[in-house]
Amino acid sequence: MHVVITGAGGFLGNRLARALAERGRLRGAPITALTMADLSAPEPVAAPFPVRSRACGVAQRDQVDALLSDGAEVIFHLAAIVSGQAEAEFDLGMAVNLTGSLNLFQAARALGTCPVVVFTSSIAVYGGEAPDPITDTVLLNPQTSYGAQKAAAEMILTDMSRRGFIDGRGLRLPSITIRPGRPNRAASSFMSSIFREPLQGQEAVCPVPPDYVLWALSPRRCIENLIHGAELPGQAFGPNRCLALPGRSYTIGEMVEAMRRVAGEAPVRLIRWEVDPELMRIVADWRGRFAVEKALRLGFVRDESFEDNVRQFLSEELGRG
Fold first, then answer.
1. 9, 17, 142, 144: most buried by Cβ count inside 10 Å?
2. Are the CB atoms for 285 and 126 separated by under 8 Å?
């Protein structure tokens, strides 16, 4: 079982690689090799099987072909330009998020073995006149370039799966919080930074009002869902190979209160509330309430509460059990 991860230099890609290394098996078979790929070759994780590191720009078809030249049974496609950057740099977002995804799907098709392809999509594919809550059958109506690029890639993933070229499944990620590290250019970056920095004694700015609602999932549950998505048989998804992952709906104010209950008053005092009109233009139409019966029926999981997310961050990232 050869597994390939694009975007493996990022937080989720690295954590996914570590989880696979710990499991040692996928889809009922032992993992015999793991290839971690990103624009710059990522640091390989320690594993009981060979781990290769490759530099690969998915916007370049020849580089993607080279990445898959040794074949692959399962491909996790996480490589992407994040939402804020895709909005600011349209051509780059199109090259990576759309053309790059098509390159990956076509290269997987060319293997002739119908490999499993797990594509990380986003709840940014929803918006506009969609109902509240979002249901499994709602029409996609993205209101950002990032969401449009993800939605277009989803259509091709589903069609290529219908034709038997690949065994695809698209998982629409909620806002993943609390992420470690530093802020990035994702419009959702503040959803981690307003907790991550205060929990480490640093000031943070919240650019949205306390009543802003988001659909959130912890990194731990996200990785569990990516692996579960790879293990499910393709026919379990039905004709539509893409779905929204489970999460929890919270207002930002509720999340801050959850942090207060776990970590006390000190981190809460480090949050400054300064609404950013430009960022609000991007995130105002992101949906925060979902009815995800299909994902739950298929065994995908979510957190019990945001207190769990805070405790996970304190334990796993800061060593404060």
1. 17
2. no
Number of domains in the chain: 2
In degrees and rounded to multiples of 5, residue 163 shows phi and psi of -85, -5
Catalytic residue (one of 126, 146, 212, 250): 146
Question: Within this chain, do residues 280 and 200 fall inside the same structural domain, yes or no?
Answer: yes
298 domain-assigned: no
Q: ∠ at Cα 236 (83, 125), nearest 5°?
A: 20
* SS3 label, residue 291: coil
Half-sphere exposure of 314 (CA within 13 A, CB side): 17
Domain with 206 in it: 190-214+248-289+303-316
For residues 302 and 286, what is the distance between their CA atoms, to the nearest angstrom? 19
Map residue 77 onto helix, strand or coil: strand
Alpha-carbon distance of 258 to 305, in angstroms, equals 8
Residue-wise pLDDT for 22-72, tens only, equals: 999 999 999 999 999 999 999 999 999 999 999 999 999 999 999 999 999
DSSP class of 185:
S
3-class DSSP state of 206: strand
Residue 111 shares a structural domain with residue 255: no
- The model's pLDDT over 127-186, given as tens digits with 9 standing for 90+, comes to 988 888 999 999 999 999 999 999 999 999 999 999 999 999 999 999 999 999 887 777
Single-letter amino acid, residue 159: D
In this prediction the pTM is: 0.95
H, E, C per residue of 111-170: CCCCCEEEEEEEHHHCCCCCCCCECCCCCCCCCCHHHHHHHHHHHHHHHHHHCCCCEEEE
| Residue 183 in domain | no
Residue 146 among the catalytic residues: yes
DSSP 8-state code for residue 80: -
Q: Nearest Cα to 285, choosing from 77, 168, 174, 141?
A: 141
Domain match, 142 and 223 both: yes
Q: Are residues 101 and 10 in the same domain?
A: yes
